[in-house]
Amino acid sequence: MRLTDRKIYLASKSPRRRELLRQIGIDFELLLLRSRDPENVDMVNETVLPGELPHDYVKRISGEKADFAWRSLERRRLLHRPVLTADTAVVLDHKILGKPKDKKEAAAMLRELSGKTHQVLTCVTVRKKDIFLQAIQESEVTFALLSDEIIDHYCDTLEPYDKAGSYGIQGLAAKFITRIAGSYSGIAGLPLYETTKLLREAGVDIP
Fold it and tell me: Which helix (H) or strand (E) covers residue 124, if one does?
């Protein structure tokens, strides 16, 4: 049975994911942390487990976010609609580059990425009752050589500090990128083709 409307829950604080959903006309409601909740989407441990491969990592984190969000929805007795979550990882030479803690760490990551090609993995998860669907999209991004001056200037902005790998393709860092192969929206944090496919499979009425 298909849903009577096209609305979903987005369990993410990312403004980029909101913009991407709006781009394809998906109506959504934010399902965010309540301070009194014993569990919530922000309590997922994003530490890479020993020996964990990048694909397994994004799949686990996105899935755990979806499970937490669904339990929160049920505790709050909200209307049952599909919950959408995602997790993005920047990978260089099989190493996951997370979100930087400070300027020094951000600058170090950007020096690692300078002049090289890296991978961006985004796992999308859709959860509803007994439905649990996932898809991983992988893209490649090539950076130009970055001088210390360019890196220092970029790290003086707010951009690097809430993003995997210390950069966002949709912002100032776009001028660092010489080539991409794959999905622009996937690199930005929510691959729209895969997202649309999963939501349709979950019963959301998307033209």
Answer: strand 117-128
Beta bridge partner(s), residue 135 = 124
Is residue 151 situated within a structural domain? yes
Task: Return d(Cα 85, Cα 42) in angstroms, integer.
Answer: 12
Residue 207 counted as domain residue: no
What is the reported pLDDT for 40?
A: 47
Q: Are strands 177-181 and 8-10 parallel, antiparallel or unpaired?
A: unpaired
Residues with a known catalytic role: 87
Q: Residue 2 domain-assigned?
A: no
The three-point CA angle 178-183-187 to 5° equals: 70
C-alpha 94: how far from its chain's center? Answer: 18
DSSP state of 4: S
The model's pTM is: 0.91
Task: Report the distance separating Cα 106 and Cα 99, nearest Å.
Answer: 8
